[in-house]
Design goal:
heterotrimer; A alpha/beta; B alpha/beta; C alpha/beta; B: Aspartate Aminotransferase, domain 1; seven-stranded mixed beta sheet; C: alpha/beta
């Protein structure tokens, strides 16, 4: 087996806010406050756990680490002799160092980047490399809205080891952008920021018998065909963000904003990346005898089909369209990857949320549906 | 059974009252009924089922069951000339020995490391069948030949993207029924006309029916009625020219002397392995197989478990594992186009033993022997007044039609007459193929001696007079 | 076996492939001699074959002397962990003792050498057996008529789907009623076979109790509902107490209900499909009814229906004959097309009948209750095993006959997965357990079904092995992840069976492709983790 080139980026201050009840570690102010309260850096320790587990497997590995406490120290602690990128920096690191390190790693290239941090670190990687190099995330931050993290340092180690043995498929998983200020104020307002490529091991189980619920490609094609077949002439279709909705657009042969909401009628895109205002305007102008329809897919690690990444489809919009005209689609793999196969809604309107909660048919293929629980 | 009284029986050791009480105590419930708390009381049976009095003594049980099946007549002590999908061949002692091994008999879902022996035996089954049919991919056994045909023709339709299936008009009514039931949602069936003189498919009719909608063409060799098809290569060419795939159903026991379909252009081969060292068991011995070339587009459509060989860690070590389970209904669930489950692996192991014993020489000899015996019988019967063998001039393997129409007697009457002499006659075809009149399908195998065959002929002569 | 340490060593014969044992000229068996008179009468039959049909080259089968063939397969049999040899608690498989006396009866000439078409009067024993067993199964299930034609549980469930299809077709409603509802924890066949039969499948996901809610079912029911096909208890060992409501709701909507009784062991003599309101059901005779599993078959399913569906059963059916005795009714009527050749897997049926006759009504109840009690005994100890958790803590009902455990805790703390445990178990001389069918909703799943056959000591042995593996996971996780060490073969390159360039299903393919196994240019192939 040729040695895997493993890039390592640690955001050493990620997660410091959480232990002392602060949300996020983004600004220098928050970090200083956290230190005052006695917060210790969390992610180096968690990264260390993962690295120790990887080291123990004694497999051929070339570790390329960002300098200093952004990876180099932890790598050496674990027993590796890493190649080091960049130079040690005084004080608290800036997101730009993560981006710089990631870009350099992608250029070499490395085979996989192991990173420790929170949503912020994930966003840095989106900016730096997008889907160029697959990543494995060690959860270490407070804000874990993105779907890209392994469930634990051990799980992250396991993913790296499995990936090394070869042939693990990759998936695009969502990276979320939470409005920090709003978040600290107690509200969650999330945008879909982008996607990273992550090795796909939904249950991290390595068996000698291979197999998986019908491959994503087949299901997505089936879902797309089903949704397109159900579109009525003259009907205004509000398509949410995400890769599943992109598959619908592919089926229609039109472009689709991956991270935003598009409006489609009769196979033509009327508006791309529409905000709430534009959507409402089109609803008003729409022919009154053909109902509008909303088609969405769960976004993020919690399976929200409203409220994460698609707040443009607001409670107002939903009430205009009518909840009977909502279609939710997801592959069985996506559903199975959610904790307790639970979907969530967070429209901002509690009455509407309660109406949407309960059990809902989710399209999982051309001829198939799953009835899933929806929680608030 | 109350928890105190318990139940004493060799098969349920922990129902013995003392042990039961201990277990109840450890689990922490007063009675076994408490463990059924999830089952609504209204759904629970009150009292005991109304079943026959039990026979816990092994001797008594054996007497009882053997007493019932003792009423059966066995082909071991009767002359049997009936085949038609289940055939009486000699079962080597080693086949019975190995299929009786408790380790094979009671293994189930064990994997690469726990059931290495079973896996190897299955790989060997796949390999040996592959040699006979000329194909490099063979699956684990199918439920029966009909199931294999179903999988084969629908596979061909999925691969070609077409709905049409052309079936030889010479297949049995039961086979047609099985295919019709399975393919209903996904394929359109039509029949290729049979040339009455030869009993083989009419090539002109085949050409006429090979529209661009046809994905699969299926014929059997030897046919249900025993006839050998020699135009395999020509048929393959015609079928391929039309963009369809050729599926051939075989009797693997004939392939010591008959050409391998893989060699004359078949794309998918299926058949029944019951003739390979498996007792008839009143039809319970039937088991199918499916084979194709080693191409991804075929392999990805196989519905059953495929056992692949793989290297072990140490030089020269080998092991086995189930391959690409995402092909199968186990993983596809609601997206399945075919289904897999427990099939007939034990018979596959028996067939592997059989073919290992026979070797190329044995397969040649048995094929020859069956050709000779069946031809001899046909020749002698054809000389009888009132009996005709319509395809005597053609090539046939093991089975042939005898037409009794001229005798004025029905097959039923003739078979009754034969039965009076402890002989089972051929299958009555008069209902299945009315155009053949009062015809029967006679089956002659390697177990029939000249004495047996002469007895058949003499008895027929008597019955016909 | 001490149980605490893994001093078990599997036979490791490194037995060559049979093809590799070949020596030119060796004979394993000689077919019946040719009669000279016959040969003279017919001439050279092979030469007489038309050119296109004649085999030009003998098949390349191995040439091996008889005793070596025997030794070969005997050695292979030794490298197999059948229930005859050791404890097997594979979840959903209902492993149990297959009484040997059944084998000895079934192999007699009066069953083994019976031709299915030899005439009713010559098969009265067989027909009487089927008739009696039919009556017994009706009593056990609350159904009115059975067929034993399907050759496995999956084929039995497929038969149910075909019966539902035929019913709606006969009423002209099939075009509209094209949806079948099932649950995520029912056996994959409950979702797969209706799809094969042409239905759309709706899968109910579980609620917090680990089974589907009534509300979930309500969301799935419509005027397009053709039926409900599910397993209860499901593959998690949990019985859905709302089952009667499920059935009633589907009936109200005009659908039929099919009970997959693959997990019927705990219900024998305790609960009947008919009483639960089902219209049809299927049992695995090679699971619940002790017929041996046969290395994945000799399968046989008993499919039962209520009276109004009798006319749709596949033919032939066994009926009483006028004037005594029994006959086979081939009258097609509205019967669905044949599911399998002839009448069914007769030996399995005989063994199932014999098993019930040995135990009787009280015995069946004892089987069910003991299976459940044994399972709860295992569960009690498994709760104490470090790293093990039981999913769906909201569900406080006792489990029935099996439990789906989770090793997620162990994985989080040590990195050892349930698959590692499954592989390592083999070193303790026990057959491994199964993780879970797809979809794998429970993380690090591990499903165990002890059944009613085992002694307490045998259960304790299994528990000791699992506890030892858990201890090892927490003290030497690398060792725990590297098993098995004492199995019949060393660890294999599990990419090979998944790689189209490498996989080999026959000896010929193996010889052609094995050179590529060590090639530098082997492609990275996609693999999905999964169960079976």
């Amino acid at each position: 087996m040729a040695p895997l080139r493993l890039g390592l980026i640690i955001n050493p201050i990620a997660g410091m806010g959480g232990a002392v009840g602060l949300k996020g570690s983004d600004t220098a102010e928050i970090i200083a406050r956290a230190r005052e309260l006695g917060a210790e850096p969390q992610s180096p320790r968690r990264a260390g756990e993962a690295l120790a587990a990887i080291y123990a497997a004694s497999l051929p590995l070339n570790v390329i680490a960002a300098a200093g406490d952004m990876g180099e120290h932890e790598a050496r602690e674990a027993g590796f002799w890493p190649q080091v990128l960049g130079t040690d920096l005084e004080g608290d690191t800036v997101a730009e160092d993560s981006v710089r390190a990631a870009k350099a790693m992608a250029k070499m290239p490395v085979d996989l980047i192991l990173f420790a941090g929170g949503d912020g670190t994930a966003r840095d990687l989106v900016r730096a490399i997008g889907g160029k190099v697959p990543v494995v995330g060690i959860p270490a931050g407070v804000k874990m809205h993105s779907a890209v993290y392994a469930t634990s340092p051990h799980a992250a180690a396991r993913m790296v080891l499995r990936y090394m043995r070869g042939g693990v498929p990759q998936r695009e998983l969502e990276v979320m952008d939470i409005d920090e200020a709003a978040f600290r104020g107690g509200a969650v307002s999330a945008k879909l920021y982008g996607y990273l490529n992550v090795p796909y091991l939904p249950d991290l189980v390595q068996g000698t018998k291979a197999g998986g619920v019908s491959s994503d490609r087949v299901s997505l094609a089936g879902i797309a065909a089903r949704i397109v077949a159900a579109m009525q002439p003259g009907q205004l279709n509000i398509l949410g963000p995400g890769t599943t909705m992109r598959a619908v657009a592919n089926e229609l042969g039109i472009d689709k904003t991956l991270l935003g909401v598009d409006l489609v009628r009769d196979g033509v895109r009327l508006a791309g990346d529409a905000g709430e205002k534009i959507i409402l305007k089109h609803l008003k102008d729409a022919e009154t005898d053909s109902a509008a329809a909303i088609v969405v897919t769960p976004i993020g690690g919690q399976g929200h089909f409203f409220g994460r990444g698609n707040q443009q489809i607001s409670a107002h919009v939903i009430n205009q369209v009518g909840i009977e005209n909502i279609t939710v689609a997801a592959t069985m793999e996506k559903i199975a990857s959610l904790r307790e196969s639970l979907l969530h809604v967070d429209t901002g309107n509690q009455v509407l949320n309660r109406e949407l909660a309960g059990w809902r048919k989710v399209i999982t293929g051309f001829q198939t549906e799953s009835v899933c629980r929806v929680a608030i | 059974m109350s928890d105190n009284k318990g139940f004493s029986h060799p098969y349920v050791p922990n129902a013995e009252p003392g042990i039961r009480q201990r277990l109840l105590k450890t689990v922490g419930v007063a009675s076994a009924d408490d463990l059924y708390a999830s089952v609504p009381d209204a759904l629970q049976v009150k009292g005991l089922l109304d079943l026959p009095d039990p026979l816990p003594s092994e001797h008594d049980l054996r007497s009882h069951v053997e007493g019932i099946i003792g009423q059966n007549v066995s082909c071991r002590d009767h002359l049997n000339f009936c085949g038609a999908g289940c055939w009486q061949h000699y079962v080597p002692a080693l086949c019975d020995e190995i299929t009786g091994r408790g380790e094979f008999l009671t293994a189930y879902g064990g994997g690469t490391y726990s059931d290495h022996g079973k896996n190897q035996a299955m790989f060997e089954f796949q390999s040996l069948i592959g040699e006979l049919v000329g194909m490099e991919v063979v699956g684990s056994p199918a439920y029966d030949m009909g199931a294999a045909v179903n999988s084969a023709v629908t596979m061909a339709c999925r691969i070609t993207g077409r709905r049409g299936v052309l079936l030889s008009g010479g297949i049995s009514g039961d086979r047609l029924s099985q295919i019709r039931g399975f393919t209903k949602p996904v394929a359109d069936l039509s029949s290729i006309g049979i040339n009455p003189a030869t009993g083989l498919i009419n090539l002109d009719d085949l050409k006429a029916k090979l529209t661009p909608e046809i994905g699969a063409v299926y014929f059997e060799n030897p046919s249900y009625l025993g006839l050998i098809e020699s135009r395999g290569a020509e048929i393959a060419e015609i079928v391929h020219a039309a963009g369809a795939l050729l599926v051939v159903g075989v009797d693997p026991l004939s392939l010591g002397v008959l050409a391998a379909p893989g060699d004359y252009g078949a794309d998918i081969v299926c058949g029944d392995i019951q003739p390979l060292g498996i007792h008839m068991y009143a039809g319970g011995g039937c088991a199918g197989f499916l084979a194709s070339r080693d191409e991804e587009r075929f392999v990805s459509e196989f519905p059953m478990i495929l056992m692949s060989i793989a290297p072990g860690v140490e030089e020269g070590d080998i092991g086995f594992a189930w391959s690409t389970m995402q092909r199968t209904s186990y993983d596809k669930r609601h997206d399945s186009e075919d289904y897999a489950g427990t099939t007939q692996w034990l018979w596959g192991i028996g067939a592997a033993v059989y073919l290992s014993l026979m070797g190329p020489q044995g397969m040649d000899e048995i094929g020859r022997g069956i050709l000779q015996r069946s031809r001899y019988a046909a020749m002698q019967i054809a000389k009888l007044k009132g009996a005709k063998v319509p395809h005597l001039d053609g090539a046939f393997f093991k089975e042939f039609i005898v037409d009794f129409s001229a005798s004025g007697k029905s097959v039923a009457e003739i078979n009754a007459g034969l039965r009076a002499h402890d002989i089972f006659g051929g299958k009555d075809l008069s209902g299945e193929f009315p155009m053949l009149g009062q015809s029967a399908l006679f089956c002659v195998t390697e177990i029939h001696t000249k004495k047996n065959l002469d007895k058949l002929v003499d008895t027929l002569a008597e019955v016909l007079s | 076996m001490s149980g605490k340490q893994s001093d078990f060593q599997a036979a490791r014969w490194n037995e060559e492939l049979i093809m590799e044992l070949s020596e030119t000229g060796a004979r394993g068996i000689v077919p019946p001699a040719m009669d000279a008179d016959i040969a003279a009468a017919v001439g050279d039959v092979v030469a007489a074959l038309p050119a296109g049909a004649r085999r030009e080259k003998l098949p390349q089968l191995p040439e091996v002397p008889q005793h070596r063939v025997l030794r070969h397969f005997m050695r292979l049999s030794q490298m197999c962990m059948g229930f005859d040899v050791t404890t097997d608690m594979m979840g959903t498989c209902t492993m149990k003792y297959s009484p040997k006396v059944h084998e000895h009866i079934a192999r007699g000439a009066k069953l083994a050498d019976v031709h299915p078409l030899q005439g009713e009067q010559n098969m009265q024993g067989l027909l009487e057996l089927m008739y009696r067993f039919n009556k017994i199964m009706c009593q056990i299930s609350g159904m009115d008529e059975f067929t034993f034609q399907p050759a496995s549980g999956a084929q039995g469930i497929y038969t149910n789907a075909c019966l539902i299809r035929a019913y709606h077709e006969s009423r002209g409603e099939l075009a509209q009623r094209n949806e079948i509802i099932t649950t995520s924890f029912s056996h994959p066949a409950d979702a797969a076979t209706p799809s094969v039969a042409g239905f759309k499948v709706i899968t109910l996901m579980p609620g917090e109790m680990g089974y589907a809610d009534v509300d979930a079912l309500k969301a799935a029911i419509s005027d397009r509902t053709a039926g409900l096909m599910l397993t209860n208890p499901e593959d998690t060992g949990q019985y859905n107490p709302h089952i009667r409501e499920f059935v009633d709701l589907v009936h109200e909507a005009g659908g039929l209900c099919a009970y997959d009784q693959a997990n019927g062991n705990p219900l024998l003599g305790k609960v009947r499909a008919g009483d639960t309101g089902f219209d049809m059901c299927q049992f695995n005779l090679h699971k619940t009814f002790s017929a041996p599993h046969g290395s994945l078959g000799m399968g046989c399913a008993a499919v039962g229906v209520k009276d109004f569906l009798r006319r749709f059963l596949p033919r032939p059916l066994v009926a009483e004959a006028d004037g005594g005795g029994y006959r086979l009714d081939y009258e097609q009527g509205e019967g669905i097309d044949k599911i399998r050749a002839f009448i069914g897997n007769i030996p399995a049926m005989l063994k199932a009948y014999s098993w019930v006759m040995s135990l009787g009504a009280e015995g069946l109840r004892a089987v069910a209750e003991t299976a459940v009690l044994n399972n709860n005994y295992m569960l009690k100890s498994m709760r104490e095993v470090r790293g093990v958790s039981i999913p769906w803590p909201a569900n406080n009902y006792p489990k029935l006959e099996q439990v789906r455990y989770s090793f997620e805790q162990m994985f989080k703390e040590t990195g050892v997965t349930s698959h590692d445990v499954i592989d390592r178990m083999v070193d303790y001389g026990v057959q491994h357990c199964m993780p879970s069918h797809m979809p794998m909703l429970v993380p690090e799943p591990f499903t165990m079904e002890p059944g009613e056959s085992l002694t307490v000591a045998e259960m304790d042995q299994m528990l000791a092995a699992l506890k030892a593996i858990s201890d090892e996971a927490y003290s030497d996780s690398e060792k725990a992840q590297g098993g098995p060490y004492n199995a019949s073969t060393t660890r294999i390159d599990s990419d090979v069976p998944e790689d189209p360039d490498c996989w080999a299903f026959t000896y010929r393919a193996y010889q052609r492709k094995k050179g590529h196994w060590t090639s530098e240019s082997r492609r990275k192939i996609e693999r999905h983790s999964g169960g079976y």
